[in-house]
């Protein structure tokens, strides 16, 4: 089985990404690296521990990564994050304090060590800002370039951003880091708003979790209903909430959920277009490309897999 590491700013859809990875028999979730974004890095790490305990996955270590972007010295959480994910990041649901602790080592080093150990057999899925990956690339380029599969949630090519017309939230947190990653030789799959906004979950599905009458089913129904309501309040065109981060996990395991465009990209860092993920004209005729950009998604097949994974896990 392939080894998987998630890099999360846990967050509601990040929590669903954890559940998908825990439930999938084809991958072995060997660790979580924490990032900042939906919440501060420490809160996100604690949320990951709480979710893992709720799911009975108490053997997955959680490391903290970077607490702010490459170009700043601290991170200020945006008010919209509390609105969408709740003040605590997980829909204001009070999960028990975790019995386990965060790991002492750095998330960046954990990623590098795992890359050295597993190389091609490692799947890395960042669903927050890409600061940890950029740092790891700077620190040990060879190790990171040996990773078999990097599938990230972030960016937008065929639709506008969700922070502003140009920028998607994860990229917007640290466009410089994203640019380091996208312009590196790493082979990447981009699961951006192009596909995640087409992959929606509604209260019809969360009701099925609630009916299970288990701790995990009820907690996830409460957490995700908060997210669905927040979407209704802020994103009125969509019927439901977008499965951003769990779609990235699904695609990392089974790329056939999406169709992709092969492209060389860069991320704009100038103030007027900050965070824009777009084709790099300087490399437009280069036959070698390093990013597969998700453009369409087989949403029905994915949604079925998503529900099979999560419902199966919540039943236990
Ligand atoms: C992304 O931003 C975060 O708020 C979500 O967790 C997701 O990773 C969507 O733009
Ligand atoms: Ca996220």
UniProtKB/TrEMBL annotation:
Gene Ontology CC annotations of this record: cytosol
Keywords: Glycosidase, Hydrolase
InterPro entries: Inosine/uridine_hydrolase_dom, IUNH, Ribo_hydro-like
Keyword Cell cycle found: no
Gene3D superfamilies: Ribonucleoside hydrolase-like
Superkingdom per UniProt: Bacteria
SUPFAM superfamilies: Nucleoside hydrolase
Pfam family, one: IU_nuc_hydro
Domain Inosine/uridine-preferring nucleoside hydrolase: start-end pairs: 4-303
Molecular-function GO terms, alphabetical: purine nucleosidase activity
GO biological process: purine nucleoside catabolic process
Keyword Disulfide bond on entry: no
Protein name, as recorded: Inosine-uridine nucleoside N-ribohydrolase
Organism: Secundilactobacillus kimchicus JCM 15530
């Amino acid at each position: 089985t392939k080894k998987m590491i998630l890099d999360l700013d846990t967050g509601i859809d990040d929590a669903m990404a954890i559940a998908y990875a825990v439930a999938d028999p084809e991958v072995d979730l060997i660790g979580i690296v924490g990032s900042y974004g939906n919440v501060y890095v420490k809160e996100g790490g604690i949320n990951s521990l709480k979710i893992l305990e709720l799911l009975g996955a108490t053997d997955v270590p959680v490391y903290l990564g970077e607490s702010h972007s490459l170009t700043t010295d601290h991170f200020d959480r945006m008010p919209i994050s509390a609105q969408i994910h709740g003040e605590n990041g997980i829909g204001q649901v009070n999960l028990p304090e975790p019995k386990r602790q965060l790991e002492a080592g750095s998330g960046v080093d954990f990623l590098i060590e795992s890359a050295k150990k597993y190389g091609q057999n490692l799947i890395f899925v960042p669903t927050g800002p890409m600061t940890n990956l950029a740092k790891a690339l700077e620190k040990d380029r060879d190790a990171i370039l040996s990773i078999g599969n990097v599938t990230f949630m972030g960016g937008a090519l065929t639709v506008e951003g969700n922070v502003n017309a140009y920028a998607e939230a994860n990229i917007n947190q640290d466009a410089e880091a994203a640019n380091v990653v996208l312009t590196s030789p790493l082979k990447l799959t981009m699961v951006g708003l192009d596909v995640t906004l087409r992959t929606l979950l509604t209260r019809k599905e969360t009701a099925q979790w609630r009916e299970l009458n288990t701790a995990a089913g009820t907690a996830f129904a409460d957490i995700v209903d908060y997210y669905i309501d927040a979407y209704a309040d802020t994103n009125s065109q969509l019927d439901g909430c977008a499965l951003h981060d769990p779609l990235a996990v699904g695609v990392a395991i089974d790329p056939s959920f999406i169709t992709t465009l092969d492209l060389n990209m860069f991320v704009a860092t100038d103030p007027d277009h900050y965070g824009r993920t777009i084709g790099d004209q300087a490399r437009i005729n280069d036959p070698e490309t390093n990013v597969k950009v998700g453009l369409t998604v087989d949403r029905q097949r994915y949604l079925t897999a998503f529900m099979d994974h999560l419902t199966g896990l919540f039943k236990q």
